[in-house]
Amino acid sequence: MSPIEVTIAYTDGCEHTPPTRALVEQVAAELGLSIRLEMAHVTTVDEARRNRLHGSPTVLVAGRDIDPAMRERTDYGFT
Question: Domain total for the chain?
């Protein structure tokens, strides 16, 4: 089975990024899941759009936001 693609998109100074990364890694380990974790440092509006950043951090699994309420939104940017 291929690793699950997980992306954490984040901006400079986001204090929630390290605990979010730790939580993603912990949950994957507890569930016995193989993940490929990418940390996407977002510094431009184009990168925010590309990484579907609604706020920092944003977690995507296989390209989909883990928050169902955010999946249809297109107002990407820095918050």
Answer: 1
pTM of the model: 0.91
Task: Provide the domain limits for residue 37.
Answer: 4-65
Tokens in use for 33?
């899941």
Q: Which helix (H) or strand (E) holds 5?
A: strand 4-10
pLDDT along the chain (79 residues), means of 10: 95 96 98 97 93 94 93 79
Q: Around 9, how many Cα atoms within 13 Å sit in the side-chain half-sphere?
A: 26
Q: What is the CATH number of the domain that holds 23?
A: 3.40.30.10
Residue 59 lies in a domain: yes
